[in-house]
Amino acid sequence: MRAIRTRSQERIFNLLKTIKKGISAQDIYVELRNTNQSMGLATVYRSLEALKLEGIVQVRNLANGEALYSLAQQDKHHLTCLQCGVSIPIHQCPVHDLEEQLESSHKFKVFYHTLEFFGLCSQCQVNQAEKGCQ
Ligand SMILES: [Zn+2]
Ligand SMILES: [Zn+2]
């Protein structure tokens, strides 16, 4: 079952495909305007909402209340270093089985899940240890 997309949804979908990280609705609006594909901010929000319910766009809410949109990740997880910001992909998913269990026990269609690990990468740990010695 695949919903028919409007031209606005298609444009946003194509834009998100070219952007590797999350982007706010406001920035999507600006990006589209810069590439002569202008649409109103309300349309941007409406289209994002529709894409979200289709399961192909995911939203991540930051601590500052900003919502970042990106294409729904196909089960990719990362270790993110809080110091230098490096993002290390991990090639396994500890909750994959759980997801299937939940789908059947709750008759719930899971589109995606997120799982993030934050801390210090090995290089930053070394740097921090060196700083401590001085
Ligand atoms: Zn680091
Ligand atoms: Zn996963």
From TrEMBL:
Keywords: DNA-binding, Iron, Metal-binding, Repressor, Transcription, Transcription regulation, Zinc. Pfam families: FUR. Zn(2+) binds at C81, C84, C121, C124. It comes from Nostoc punctiforme (strain ATCC 29133 / PCC 73102). This is Ferric uptake regulator, Fur family. Belongs to the Fur family. Its cofactor is Mn(2+); Fe(2+); Zn(2+). Fe cation binds at H113.
